[in-house]
Amino acid sequence: GGEPMFREQADKALMLVPSARPLPVYHALGRLIAVALVHASYGDAALPLPLNDCLLKYIVGQPITAADVRRRDPMYYRHRIDALLRPGGIEQTVAALMVDRLVFEEDGVELVAGGASVPVTPSNVQEYVRLLSEEYVCGAVRSELAAFLAGFHDVVPQSLLQDCGLTFATLGALLSGVPELDVVAWRRFAVVRAAGVPQDVADAVAERLWATLEGWPEEERSVLLAFVTGCSRLPAVGFERLDPPFAVEVVPCVDAGRLPTAHTCFNCLTLPAYASSAVISDKLTIAAHEGAGGFALR
User: Fold this and answer.
1) What angle, 0 to 180 degrees and rounded to 10, lies between the N-to-C axes of helices 53-60 and 142-155?
2) Pair 201, 250: CB distance under 8 Å
3) Dihedral sign computed on CA atoms, order 61, 62, 65, 68
4) What share of the chain is helix, strand, coil (3-state, %, to 5)?
5) Which of 134, 171, 214, 240 is most deeply packed, by most CB within 10 A?
6) 75 vs 238: which has the higher pLDDT
7) 40-68 pLDDT, tens per residue?
């Protein structure tokens, strides 16, 4: 018996939840998951269910972003974050929340020291969104999360994970196996946009992209998905219901050294019009591994 310490999220992955259990039990749970990682590194199957991307990010020390909030609660994201980042968004949010001004405080919790007296301005709104996202994801489970992470890092230090170059996506793949990502469905439900190139050029570059992904192992596909969407796993309903839909934006290739970029809040991959599938594969691999978990707004 006893209360569960994990709960399945919308993406069928497990996230820590508060319970009446004492914190040393969460510490022991962290140690147990770390031991599972050690076994997985020798090729053993580790966990029958995947851990949520947010929990994986805390383990490896990657930041929580607005993309994580969007995955967990699209309505909250739309009204509290997306609306805020639009022109005039601070004033509109103040009016919607019926407050005198927006400050670095949420439900009585200061997001920074003295946050109740720090107003949100255009110059610090990005920092506010980062802190608000982190508070939304882990505020209710902060004590349990700290105990879990202390237990995990007792066995496998965070510095070791970072020295090995493990991102949250690669850690998830190592612990729980890799989600199957169907390239046919990926292509069918993706949007291809031309930005400064003819549409037929954009379509041809996108075809090279799909051919590249067909030849990639599942692990690399998962890393690319995490790079573009901020999430290593699809929602249970698959690419068909990814919101917004996966987008490939093809731009002119004015510099041969330029890497693809990702806009995680829009699930958008900006891909220069590289001349061959080999170049696409090389550039995507570099960008996805260097920038996994990145977050960009435009």
Assistant:
1) 50
2) yes
3) negative
4) 55, 10, 35
5) 171
6) 75
7) 887 766 688 889 999 999 999 999 988 88
